[in-house]
What does this fold into?
Amino acid sequence: MSEIAREVDSTLVFLIAFCTVILVGVAVAMFAMVFKYHRSKSPTTKQIHSHTGLEVAWTVVPFILCIGLFFVGYEGFKAMRTPPADAMQITVTAQRWFWSFTYPDSGITTGELTIPVNRSVKLNIRTDDNEVLHSLYIPAFRVKEDAVPGLDTYIWLHPDQTGTFNIFCAEFCGKDHSKMITTLHVVEQDEYDAWLDKQVAEYYRPVEATLAMSDDPEVLAGYDGDKLFTKYCASCHGAGGEGGGPYKARDFRSIEGWKQGTKKTDVFKTISTGIPGTEMRSFAHLPVRERLALMRKITSFHPDRQQPTVEDIAVLKAAFPELDPTRAVQIPKPNMPIDEAMKQVVEEGQVP
Amino acid sequence: MSDHTAAGTAEAHLHYDPVGNRIGMWLFLLTELILFGTLFIIYAVYFHRYTPDYERAAHELNRLIGGANTLVLLTSSLTMALSIAALQKDKAAQAIRWGFITLGFASIFLVVKGFEWAHKFELGIYFDSEVLLARPKGEIVFYGMYFLMTGLHALHVIIGGSLIVTAMVKIKRGTATSKRMSFLENTGLYWHLVDLIWIYLFPLFYLIHR
Amino acid sequence: MSAAALATPAAINYINAEKGILSWLTTTDHKRIGILYLCSITFFFLFAATLGVLMRLELLSPGMQYMDSETYNRILTLHGMTMIFLFIIPAIPGIFGNFFLPIMIGAEDVSFPKLNLASWYFYMAGGTLALLSVMTGGPDTGWTFYVPYSFKTGANVFYPLLAAFILGWSSILTGLNFLTTVHRMRAKGVTWGKMPLFVWSLYATSWVQVIVTPVVGILLLLVLAERVLGVGIFDPSKGGDPILYQHLFWIYSHPAVYIMVLPAMGVVSEIIPTFARRTIFGYKFIAVSSIAIAAIGSLVWAHHMFTSGMADEARIIFSFLTFFVAVPSAVKIFNWLATLYGGSIALEPPMVLTLAFILIFSVGGLTGLILGALSTNIHLHDTAFVVGHFHYTMFGSGGIMFLAASHYWFPKMFGRMYNRNVAYVSILLFVIGFNVTYMPLMFAGVAGMPRRYADYLPEFETYHAISTTGSWILYAGILLMVGNLGYSVFKGKKTDKENPWGGKTLEWRTPTPPPTLNFDGEPDTSIGPYDYPVEVER
It folds into this structure.
C-alpha cells in the first residue's frame, strides 16, 4: 500500500457510495410509482406535460455535482503523476510476454521487481519499436500506464509496507497476454541492499567459454532450464519445442533450416543477439547463466547435432566478454546523487 | 382504399423528390469530406512532428507538373458545370459533348499522375522500399501519406468518371432530362468535391517547402 | 376501431402482398427490409451470445480447460466485433427504425428505398465476411484493432477489417436515408414538435452515424494498408504513432456508443407513455437531450485513453468533459420517472423490460462516473470493471431495449401475439442472469483483475465462478425469449387489433399488419404522439 493507493481507495468508496445513493433513489422512486399508479389502483391519469422548474433543477444539480466529481478524481490524479525529484529510477521493459526491470547504477536486469520500502521509486516504462502495446499495472498500488513503442512513459510508487504484489499486463498484447504476470517484492532497505549486491555479483560472474559449451551440470548449478524455457521461449516455440504459434517460430525438434546455425555456439549467439528482421529478439539482458541454461534446453530437443569446434568457441569468447574470465567485466560505477555527494564532500572536509 | 394500395405500389417507386436527392447527396459529400478530413488530420499531426523532413521530401515533387494537373482538374469542373447548364436548357447533345470533354480532362489528370508515381517508383520510392526505409522517419511518413492520399483521390477521380459515363448514358436514353436533373446534378456535385479535395492536396504536398 | 379491421380479415398487407423468397430479397418496402434485418440481426445476436457463453465457460476456473489462449482471444474478438458491428449498432435502427420510422411520420416509405435495400446487402456482406474470417482462424486483436498489434499479428485480420469497413458504409447509408426521410417525408401535420421521440432519437443517431463513421472507415483501411503494404503511418519503427490511431479510433467509437444507446432511449420514450397511458413528461427536454448527448458525446473520446501515455493535460480536459455527458442521460431518466407519476401503469412484458432497463442503465451510467474520475480510472482502466460497466451500458440499453421493442411492436409487425406468461418467465431469467453475470466482474475489477485475460490468478476465482453461473441463467433467458417470439411469428395467437396496447403514435392507427403503403388513405395526424385523454376509460 501507499499513500496514493489509500487516497484512490477513499475516492473509490466515496464514488461508489454516491452512486449507490442515486441508484437507490431512482429504484425507490420507480417502484413506488409503479406500485401507486398501477392500473388496478389508478384507472385514471393526470396529464402533466412538463414543469420548467423541475427540468431546470434536474439539469443544473447534476451539472454542479459532475463538476464536483471531476475535482474529486483530479485531486488524486495530480499526486499520481508527480514523482518526487529524488525518486529511485528503474527502467521497465515490456516485451511479448514478459517484463524486465533494469536497475540504475549497476545496470543489472531481473525478471521480478524488488524495491526498498519507504522510498519513492519511479518506473520508466519503455518497449522496443517493433513491439506492440502493453500496460504496466500494479493493482496493489492502484497505478497503471501503457508501454508504447516510440514513447517513454512512467508511473511511480512510494510503498510504506513490505510485501509481495502482482504485476499484470493490462493492455491486450496477444497470445500470452494473461500470462504476462510477474511479482513485485517490497523489502526493507538492508534486505534490498543485500539482495542487490548478490544479484550484481551473480549477474557479472563470467563463465569460461569451453566450460559453458560443455554439458557439465555443475556450471549451471541453481539454474532451471525448463523453468526459464517456459518463461521466455514456450509462448512462441511451444512447451515441447514444437514451434509454430502466432509468429511461426522455429521447431526445435528438427535441425533443418536454422537461420544462424545449429551448433551450441550458434544457438547461444542467437539467444544473445536475436535474429534481425524477425520476431526473434535479443535476450542479452539475461544473465549469462540463464542464457546458457536456455541454450542447453533448446539443444536438448535434438541432441544429435554438430559440436562446436575450438575455433567456434574462440570466436564466441572474443565476442562475449561474459564468456572470458580473463577479461575484467566492467561493472558500471554507482552514480551518487548530487546532494548525497555534496554531503559526503562536506563531511570529509570536516575530518581533522 | 384497395385501389389506392394497388396503384400506390407503382407510384411509390416513381416518387421523384429533387430536393430530397440533393439533401442525400450533400450528406454523402459530408461523409467524403470527413473521410479525407481524417487523412488531413493525420497529415497535420505528422507535419507538426516532422516539419523539416516533410519540407525536404516535398522538395522532390515537381511543382510544375502538379500545378498543370491542378489546372486540368479545375477546367474539368468548369466543363462539368457547362454540361449541367446545357441539360437544364434541354440541349442533350451539348450536355453529352461537355461530359466527354470532362472525361478527357479526367484522363489527362490520371495519366500525368501515373507518370509522377512511376517516376517515384523508378527512384525506388514506394511503400516499404529499402530506399525509403533508409530515409528519416518523417520522409517515410510523408511518402506514405502522399501515395495514400493521392491514390485515394485518384480512385475518386475514377469513380467520378464512371458516374459521368453513367450520366451520359442516361441522357442519351432520355432518363436524365431537364425535368429529372438529379443524377447529373449529383454527379456534378461529386465531381466538384473531387476537384476541391485536390485543391487542398496540391499545396499540402507540392508547395510546403520554401 | 376494431370493427373496421375485422371486416376485412384477409386484407392485403405487407406480408402477403407478394410471395416467394425472391420477393423478400428484392423488396424495397421498408417494412420488409426491417424484417430482413430482424432475421439476420437475431442470428448474429445468438451467434455472439453463444461465443460469450463459451468465453465465460473457459473462465469458470483458473487454468486453461476447454481451449488454448489463442482460441480464447479469437472468440473474444469475434464476440466483441459481432455484438458491436452486427448487433447493437444496427439492431434498433435497422429493424424498428426501418419498420416504424416512416409509419410514425406518416410516410409511405423512406426517401431512398433502393439504397435502403443496398444497406441491408452491405450488412450481409459484412456479416458474411466476419463469418468467413472464423473459418480462416478468426481475428485475435480485440474489436478495437489497436495498432501495432493489428498489423503484427499472424491471425487473419484482413476479412474482419474489410467487414467492419463495409458495415460502416451500411451504417452511413442507413443514417443518410433516415435524415433525408425525416426532412422530406413527414406527412402534413407531423411537425418537428409533433415527431415521436423514437424518431427524434433516430434523427440524432443518424447525424452521429453520418459524421463519425467515415473516420473509422478510413482508419480501418489504413490498418489494412499497413498490414498489406507496410505504409508506416502507424508503425513506430517507421515514424508512425500508435496513440494517434487510438485518438482517431475513439473519435468514432465513443460516439458509436451513443449510436447504440440513443435509439434504445427512443424506444423507452415510446413504451413508457403507452403503458402509463400518460403524455411524456418534458417532451422538449428529452428531444433536446438526445441532441445534447450526440453533441457532447463527440467531445469525450479520449477518456478511453487515460493510461495510454497521452499528455496529462489532455487527460484532465477529457475527464472534465466526460462528466458533462452524464447530465443529458440523467435528464432523460428523471423525465421517464416523472412520466410514471400520475399514470395508469400496466406491467405488460415490454414495460417490465423497460423498467429493468431504467435500473440497469442507471448502474451503467453511474459506474461511468467512477470511470470518468481520473484517479479511480487509472486503477480501473482495462480491468474487468470496465467489462462490467460497458455490458451494463451497451447490453443494458441497446440489448434490453431491442428485446423490449420486439415485445412491444410484435403484434403490429406480425399480426400475432406471443405467450405472455413465457415472456414474463424469460424476462425474470434474463434480469437475474444479467446481474449475476456482470455485477461480479465489477468487483473483480476493483480487486485488480485485468480484462481480456484468457486465464487468471486463483484469487479471482470466486468472481469468475459466479459470473459464469450467471451467464448460463442469462443465456437460458435469452433463448427462451427469442424462442417464444420466434415460435409466435408462425404459431402465435392471431390478432388484428389495430392498437393492442393503447398507444398514440401513428403506427397504432393503421391496420395490423400494416398495408404495403402503410396507411389506408391519408394518415390521421390530428392527434399528437402522446395526446392521451385526461380521463381514461377502464
Remarks:
- Chains A and B do not touch (no CB pair under 8 Å).
- The domain at 209-323 of chain A is CATH 1.10.760.10 (Cytochrome Bc1 Complex; Chain D, domain 2).
- The first strand of chain A starts at residue 88 and ends at 95.
